[in-house]
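Wait, mind explaining this?

_____
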Amino acid sequence: MSNVVCPRCGATVDNLQQLDPQTVEQISERNREQVPPQICMSCYRSLVAGESSTKSSGSALLAQERAREQRKLMLWKSRVSLIKKARACMNEKAFSEAAVSYEKYIRVLEVVFDVQAGELTPEHFKDSARTQELTVVASVFWDLLRIYDTSEKYGDRQGLAAQKLAQFLRFTPIYPDILRKAESFSRTAKNPAIIRTFIKAASENKGKCFIATSAFGSEDCIEVLVLRIWRDQTLNHSMPGRIFVRCYEWVSPSLAELLDHASVLKPLVRALLRMWIGVVIR
């Protein structure tokens, strides 16, 4: 061919590039335009370049995502050394240094879970592999609560630490021990009002998962903790959920007592609860 017009761009060229039907379909779909079966070489190159650009962009995004996940993994692993350093500082009564390491630990968790400062909740730890971290988080907020009490300028930070401690503590086996220590600490604290507010908040609404506790034999096992998180962070945030919780609290004590007397049913109940937990933590 000579002196032909490209049906796509309208340019006069010596010849046109013939495209097979499959190539036409692929290029048309990728570029969101209907590409003619014959086009000039300039159009062909621009369309192919668009394909390369799309692939390159996709690869770059994938690489960025992988780098982001790798950074999160490294941060997650770094939390152990931060906790060790903070506790060593606590033993040496180097409270300012301990607070810095504890605050870095909390910030690491916020970055790992993609939340803003102060927005970390027990819900982020409902994955059974990370549920045990709840106890560490609660102990960190307890130490921060006492460290911030040393100066009035940390009043706002102490208030937030008290709020977070009350939020996390109920899901941990150290709940009764910390509550007893807080009662004693409130009598010597520089900001006793904040400590009393924490005690009141931590004491309220610590409802029990009667059936799960009976089935698993402990109210501090991972399965029960996950169910508590689901109740407090999901069910209690909607009217139907709150109604369900109230109904459960009304009937579950008698059902748990029945389960205690019919222990042969416990393996079945445990299996059913684990299946439900698998649905909850998705």
Notes: The chain has three domains: 4-54, 67-203, 210-280. The chain has a mean pLDDT of 84. The first helix runs from residue 21 to 31.
